[in-house]
Amino acid sequence: MANPVKAAVQTRAEASPSSEDDESDIDFLVRDPIHQCPSLCQVDWLHAIFGLSRGEKLWTVPWTGHTIFQVMFLWFAAFWVVGLWIIPIVAQEVGVSKHSLTYRGQALYSLITDIAEGTVGLAILHRCLSRFRPLPGEWFPVTWRGKWYVEACLGCLTFPLVNHLSQINLDLLPFPAPFSATQVEQSIMSKDPIATLLYAVVVSVCAPIWEEVIFRGFLLPSLTRYLPVWGSIFVSSIAFALAHFSIQRMLPLTFLGLVMGIVFVRSQNLLASILLHSLWNGFVFLDLLR
Asked: Residue ranges of region Disordered (predicted)?
């Protein structure tokens, strides 16, 4: 008859290897938790969000931070000087008083001012980058080819969230509303179709072109010399929001800048971010018309 004690010891010894294997499996899962959720943790988020592969470099930046600062400083200064000094002085010299203009006259004045500001801003950009010409082919990409408009339309899905962030911003910083309506609002209230059309051109055509060229076309790629793509998108979005000089819209404009930056990076086409920008401005303008 077999010894029961010896049989028990032998059984335990035979079971030990499998127990150690089980413990090894547990230790493996603890040390390497990615294997517990491969469908989520192994996703290439850089590719999923920005459409980029790891290590992929989109732009060769031939200039340094000095040129980046120079362009942005002069661009901001030009808009300030042209809009508040040069255009009013020229108007006064030709005998035009802005305050005595009709609604249509004020709308045309705003359109001329915006075109002048944008033209001077583009001239500054061209002049500052002239010593680096010819620029690498990936700079300021504009092409009608591809499905860039799909990226722009997908970006429109974030508009409700931008609106919600606007309300949050107003709740956090409840500054009193101005006592007088803006020129755009006065024009809308006057029901003047020509004036409304002129203002629509300013906000939905001119502004998106000037702003996208400088913030997404120049600033965002330039920052990739020092920052990763996601960091460049974030910093350029903050600069975009600050450029509107409205603390009450800082949160929604920063988020909108993030969306337009992602759309630009994914599409590699300025037309995509310009279209998205134009659609947002048009959305806001139509909301004023109601």
From this structure: 1-23
What is the per-residue pLDDT for 82?
A: 95
Q: Of 280, 246, 105, 245, which is closest to residue 183 (Cα–Cα)?
A: 105
Report the C-alpha gap between 34 and 24 in whole angstroms.
16
Report, as ranges of residue numbers, the positions in the chain whose pLDDT lies below 70.
Answer: 1-47, 50-56, 175-187
How far apart CA 129 and CA 75 sit, in angstroms, is 13
CA 229 – CA 274 distance, rounded (Å)? 19
Q: What CA–CA distance (Å, rounded) separates 156 from 151? A: 9
Q: What is the pLDDT of residue 127?
A: 96
pTM of the model: 0.81
Please state, in angstroms and rounded to a whole number, the distance separating the CA atoms of residues 113 and 196.
16
Whole-angstrom distance, CA of residue 43 vs CA of residue 227: 22
Number of domains in the chain: 1
pLDDT at residue number 168? 94
What pLDDT, on a 0 to 100 scale, did the predictor assign at position 47? 65
Give the separation between CA 125 and CA 9, rounded to whole angstroms. 85
Residues comprising the chain, all counted? 290
> Which residue bears the tokens 């030009």?
78
Instruction: Evaluate whether residue 195 is within a structural domain.
Output: yes
